[in-house]
Design brief:
The protein is mostly helical. Helices cover about 55% and strands about 0% of the residues. It has a single domain, classed as 434 Repressor (Amino-terminal Domain).
């Protein structure tokens, strides 16, 4: 399974965008893109979802019981 960092970085590169251009299109600060791609864990879910919506995805809360299956 890909990490969030790998997913965002790979998809951004697939569409040939720099971090700066991608941040602008997603409506977030450049630092948000950098933090995501560096695998930082202290991210704002709303900002992450703005980025993921560029690819038709969204994060949401998951019950840990559901991931154990």
């Amino acid at each position: 399974m890909k990490t969030l960092a790998e997913f965002v970085k790979n998809r951004r590169k697939e569409v040939n965008l720099t971090q700066e251009a991608f941040a602008e299109r997603a409506g977030v600060a450049l630092t948000v893109i950098r933090k995501i791609e560096q695998g930082k864990t202290n991210l704002n879910m709303d900002k992450v979802n703005l980025v993921l919506r560029m690819f038709g995805h969204e994060l949401g809360p998951v019950n840990s019981k559901d991931t154990a299956k």
